[in-house]
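User: I've been trying to design a sequence by hand for this structure and keep getting stuck. Would you show me what you'd pick, starting by listing the structure so we're on the same page?

Assistant: Good idea, let's start from the same input. This is the structure you sent:
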């Protein structure tokens, strides 16, 4: 691993110690976007939004900091800055005051600040009238308020675009492709011509982005007296004078073009989970040629990747980058940049969202290197299994060649870079609440409201099959409610959120003449999250054993126990400990988990989408395991009213007592090949397992997990004792990072509920 250069050490300190709001960036998206909004008031929405983005690209200030080798920026590091810069609607008095305080931290003139506040007060008059769209179904609204379903229908800031097109063609080349499509389009097709004109305006403005930075660098060079800074500026001038307008020829140009392409994406709709994709595959052709020609050294390339990582850094970072995996021909695609990305991540020592694709033939050296970095304790990188996800995608309608090029967005959401609108985390269904309703004839035990269909009095059920039948009816009903709302929102977003830039860099949109959000992508689908699978498994296992097999309790007695929230602790402990639990390689619980997941996937396949491929299962809870649990009554797994659900497909915290191998064996029994949106599992591991002498066993464990079909894995490498100390003395552990829920974060920044949840998860000391 290359050491950090003095330049990178200095840039790293500047990034980590940067204020929440950088004065040079304040208002730099907001001001040009608002001016364009007012200039084009009343224009059709696609035209309005494309001109706003084009104005941001063309008019935001060019800022180059000393020591930088990559030019350009998107937003200040505080997430709040993104909301300030992207929300172009009228503010409430309180939020207006907050915005005014934000603007005071920037470099804008008094007149510009006054203009922004005044224009926002008038902004509603700039937009065309909204189309008359139906509201959410009442049944859905009731179910959402009752804690069963949520359907945000996400269509914003969850993408991996075709950035390689920018590197290969440049924006000038993309303008030519647009012009060619326009020439082949009948003049009578005015809608498509308008769409193409929007794409062209954005692409044309992007052609000038590098030139503006080259000009800024020339201005700085004219008064620069520092010799090193002069050399840096000369390099920036040479690179940005070419990209992103024209194709990248060198590794330096490719890295700069990639960054420019990414920040335009974030300027369109914010940062969050707008991700990079397979960074080693995108950049490797340029690296290989430069190394062979002697144009760059490995140390220089390492420094450039460090600069890219520093540009991407945020306190909450889910701008996913991915390395490794198979190529389109089914061969291992790991290369020098795969290892370099891991080296850079370790050397910089902060949370940078990175994952590794593995398969049966992944080099042991790559697996070991990735695990070495994981062992440093920040939960990075995490792992995806090609042996599972490629077949899952192919069986759900993705062409095998495209499936081989999958990438993760944000936490674990799966897309096909530059070819898909995945509507990641489009909806989620609380399966444990579905079981609660199955045991109470469709009526919530927490509110007394009827939320689901009547499935009969549980007191009349005579066997576990009766419980399962009621559960399946409830689950199928709520899946259709959740997906129906996702479909409604897709139609809404297609009319209210046109995305010219995403359309430009997503295959299918140009040819079809349809926007990214209006079904234009080659692959259009939604990802639906079943929550609580391990809890459902533990609950059904407890009912099967304690009620129907051993007959320790009748079902009527069990229901009274649940409604009383386990008033007798000894009874709760019996349900908790006398029945098998998922995560211990016990088929009595594990088979129920496999059943619950398979049933969800089968039901989901029967639901149609507005366009495209419908819905992909994505067993993932993110942070919503707390919210969903707070709205779910006590359940037969021994969980009390209001307690969290299990994280995704990980065992419920504290219940996996058989060691790490047992956990992985349980997870491997899940039908992950049915879940094209990816599963998600976090394994809590003692740091001793990652010591050099034991790492060879962890490599074997990981490769075995891949072969057995574990779909996705993340590791927390920190002891419970350390976490408790960090909770008590946060200032002493300010840099301690943990794997939270598909992302890593500094432990001190989490609220106590999340901290307690992570502490409670089993810390495995043996394999």
């Amino acid at each position: 691993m290359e050491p950090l250069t003095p330049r990178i050490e200095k840039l790293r300190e500047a990034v980590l110690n940067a204020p929440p709001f950088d004065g040079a960036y304040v208002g730099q998206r907001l001001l040009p976007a608002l001016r364009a909004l007012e200039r084009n008031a009343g224009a059709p929405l696609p035209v309005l939004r494309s001109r706003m983005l084009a104005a941001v690209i063309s008019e935001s200030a060019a800022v180059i900091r000393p020591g930088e080798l990559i030019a350009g920026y998107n937003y200040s590091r505080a997430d709040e800055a993104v909301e300030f810069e992207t929300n172009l609607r009228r503010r409430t008095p309180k939020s207006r005051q907050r915005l005014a305080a934000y603007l005071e931290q920037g470099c804008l003139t008094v007149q510009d600040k006054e203009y922004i506040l005044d224009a926002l007060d008038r902004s509603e008059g700039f937009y065309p009238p909204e189309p008359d769209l139906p509201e959410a179904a009442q049944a859905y609204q009731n179910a959402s308020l009752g804690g069963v379903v949520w359907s945000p229908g996400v269509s914003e800031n969850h993408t991996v675009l075709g950035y390689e097109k920018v590197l290969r063609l440049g924006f000038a080349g993309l303008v030519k492709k647009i012009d060619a499509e326009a020439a082949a389009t009948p003049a009578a097709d005015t809608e498509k011509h308008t769409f193409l004109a929007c794409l062209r305006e954005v692409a044309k403005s992007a052609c000038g982005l590098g030139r503006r930075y080259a000009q800024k660098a020339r201005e700085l060079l004219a008064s620069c007296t520092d010799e090193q800074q002069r050399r840096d500026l000369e390099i920036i001038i040479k690179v940005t004078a070419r990209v992103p307008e024209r194709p990248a020829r060198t590794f330096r140009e490719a890295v700069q073009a990639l960054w420019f392409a990414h920040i335009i994406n974030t300027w369109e709709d914010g940062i969050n989970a707008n991700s990079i994709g397979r960074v080693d595959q995108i950049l490797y052709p340029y690296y290989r040629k430069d190394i062979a020609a002697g144009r760059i050294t490995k140390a220089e390339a390492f420094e450039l990747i460090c600069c890219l990582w520093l540009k991407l850094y945020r306190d909450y970072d889910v701008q996913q980058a991915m390395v490794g995996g198979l190529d389109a021909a089914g061969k291992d695609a790991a290369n020098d940049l795969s290892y370099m990305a891991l080296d850079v991540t370790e050397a910089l020592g902060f949370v940078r969202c990175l994952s590794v694709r593995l398969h049966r033939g992944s080099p042991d050296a790559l697996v070991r290197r990735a695990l070495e970095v994981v062992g440093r304790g920040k939960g990075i990188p995490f792992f995806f299994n090609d042996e599972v996800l490629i077949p899952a995608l192919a069986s759900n309608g993705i062409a095998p060649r495209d499936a081989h090029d999958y990438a993760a967005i944000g936490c674990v959401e799966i897309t096909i870079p530059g070819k898909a609108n995945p509507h990641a985390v489009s909806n989620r269904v609380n399966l444990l609440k579905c079981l609660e309703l199955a045991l109470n004839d469709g009526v919530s035990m927490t509110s007394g409201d009827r939320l689901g269909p009547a499935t009969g009095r549980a007191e009349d059920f005579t066997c576990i099959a009766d419980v399962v039948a009621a559960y399946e009816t409830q689950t199928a009903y709520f899946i259709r409610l959740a997906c129906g709302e996702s479909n409604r929102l897709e139609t809404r977003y297609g009319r209210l959120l046109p995305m010219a830039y995403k359309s430009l860099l997503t295959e299918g949109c140009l040819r079809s003449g349809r926007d990214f959000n209006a079904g234009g992508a080659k692959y259009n689908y939604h990802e639906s999250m079943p929550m609580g699978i391990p809890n459902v498994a533990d609950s059904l296992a407890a009912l099967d054993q304690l009620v129907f097999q051993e007959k320790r309790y009748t079902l009527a007695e069990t229901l009274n126990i649940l409604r009383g929230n386990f008033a007798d602790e000894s009874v709760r402990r019996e349900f908790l400990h006398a029945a098998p639990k998922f995560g211990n390689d016990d088929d009595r619980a594990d088979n129920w988990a496999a059943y619950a997941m398979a049933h969800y996937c089968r039901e989901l396949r029967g639901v149609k989408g507005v366009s495209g491929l419908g819905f992909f299962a994505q067993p993932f809870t993110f942070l919503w395991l707390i919210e969903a649990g707070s709205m779910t009554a006590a359940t037969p797994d021994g969980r009390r009213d209001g307690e969290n659900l299990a994280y995704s497909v990980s065992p419920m915290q504290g219940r996996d007592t058989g060691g790490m191998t047992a956990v992985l064996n349980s997870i491997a029994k899940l039908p992950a090949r049915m879940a094209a949106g990816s599963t998600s599992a976090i394994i809590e591991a003692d740091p001793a397992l990652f010591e050099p002498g034991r790492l060879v066993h962890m490599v074997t464990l990981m490769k075995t997990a891949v072969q057995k079909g574990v779909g996705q894995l993340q590791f927390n490498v920190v002891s419970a004792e350390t976490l408790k100390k960090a909770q008590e003395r946060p200032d002493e552990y300010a840099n301690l990072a943990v794997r939270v829920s598909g992302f890593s974060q500094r432990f001190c920044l989490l609220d106590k509920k999340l901290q307690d949840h992570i502490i409670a998860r089993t810390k495995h000391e043996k394999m």
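That's my pick for every position. To get oriented when you compare it with your attempt: The chain has 31 helices and 15 strands. The mean pLDDT is 96.
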